[in-house]
């Protein structure tokens, strides 16, 4: 099946009858072949948003095989149901900007997955506030941009550095920013620029063990489960919509260093899943939550 003619449609709108029929019927009438379709209505519970979400992977005939044509095809249906509809060409690889500080496990894992063909993306650049992983970036043939921030930098200095990152995002046409253990708090302005297109990873001890050496803090308290959380970046620190989480059991026989090793392994797995699901257009924002079609 030719990837050049394959697309993913994602949509959200108020939940009502007939949406699946309208979408699938229009695709059928246009000569498209639906490969996979998933939907979810958020209707139950006090926190329900009342929204309907849908992801359709389909193959289009040659005369319709571009995003602009498909978008025009859905103009009436979009207006009728007040939909947020987006089309994504499967053949187009999303462009990622990776950001890292001084812990390189997630960066190295993502680079390996990309190089080995497990992660179908392009990585035009790696940005860091330290020079630690310049050699790693060079070994993969990816430009490394060092934008230093010294301890205690003012808000103005940090914002100036963020604007340099924004310039890279614009110049390289970046689709997704991945904070692969980038240990800087982003300004509200930068978070707004990155709304819905930046993913962060951290341990799942929050809010219990904040700050430096959280795995050592957890070891000292006899923690029995270690986890990690990947979420979208918002101005509310580490409280953005969650994409993926995982845990692993630990016990008293493990050292604090063992805790750290287990935690870093989970962080790599969780971040890789979150990034993959995002680039495959499987994640749709639902207020403070997310819908993930696996």
Task: Please give a structural write-up.
With 294 residues, the chain is an alpha/beta fold. It has two domains: 6-89, Alpha-Beta Plaits, CATH 3.30.70; 95-292, Rossmann fold. It has nine helices and 13 strands. The chain has helices at 19-29, 67-73, 75-81, 105-115, 134-139, 155-171, 188-193, 214-220, 256-279; strands spanning 6-14, 33-41, 51-59, 84-89, 95-100, 122-128, 144-146, 176-179, 198-203, 225-232, 242-249, 283-286, 289-292. The strands form three sheets. A seven-stranded mixed β-sheet has the order 7-6-5-8-9-10-11, with helices on both faces. Strands 2-3-1-4 form a four-stranded antiparallel β-sheet, with helices on one face. Strand 8 (176-179), helix 7 and strand 9 (198-203) form a beta-alpha-beta unit. Helix 4 (105-115) crosses helix 9 (256-279) and helix 8 (214-220) crosses helix 9. The longest helix is centred in the last third of the chain and has 24 residues, at 256-279. The radius of gyration is 21 Å and the shape is globular. The mean pLDDT is 95. Belongs to the PurU family. Residues 8-95 form the ACT domain.
């Amino acid at each position: 099946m030719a990837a050049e003619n394959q697309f993913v449609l994602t949509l959200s709108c108020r939940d009502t009858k007939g949406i699946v029929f309208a979408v699938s019927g229009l695709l059928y009438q246009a000569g498209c072949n639906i490969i996979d379709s998933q939907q979810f209505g958020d209707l139950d519970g006090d926190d329900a948003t009342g929204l309907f979400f849908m992801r359709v992977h389909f193959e289009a005939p040659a005369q319709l095989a571009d995003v602009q044509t498909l978008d025009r095809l859905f103009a009436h249906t979009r207006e009728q149901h007040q939909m947020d509809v987006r089309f994504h060409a499967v053949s187009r690889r999303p462009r990622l900007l990776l950001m890292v500080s001084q812990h390189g496990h997630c960066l190295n894992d993502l680079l390996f997955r990309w190089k080995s063909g497990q992660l179908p993306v392009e990585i035009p650049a790696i940005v860091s506030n330290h020079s630690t992983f310049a050699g790693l970036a060079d070994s993969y043939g990816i430009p490394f941009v060092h934008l230093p921030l010294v301890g205690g930098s003012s808000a103005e200095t940090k914002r100036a550095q963020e604007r340099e990152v924004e310039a890279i995002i614009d110049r390289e046409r970046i689709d997704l920013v991945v904070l692969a253990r980038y240990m800087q708090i982003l300004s509200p302005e930068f978070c707004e620029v990155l709304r819905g297109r930046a993913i962060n990873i951290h341990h799942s001890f929050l809010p219990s063990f904040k700050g430096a050496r959280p795995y050592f803090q957890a070891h000292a308290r006899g923690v029995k489960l270690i986890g990690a959380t990947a979420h979208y970046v918002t101005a509310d620190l580490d409280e953005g919509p969650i994409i993926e989480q995982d845990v692993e059991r630990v016990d008293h026989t493990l050292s604090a260093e063992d805790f750290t090793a287990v935690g870093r392994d989970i962080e790599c797995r969780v971040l890789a899943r979150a990034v993959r699901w995002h680039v495959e257009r499987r994640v749709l924002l639902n207020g403070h939550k997310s819908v993930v079609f696996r």
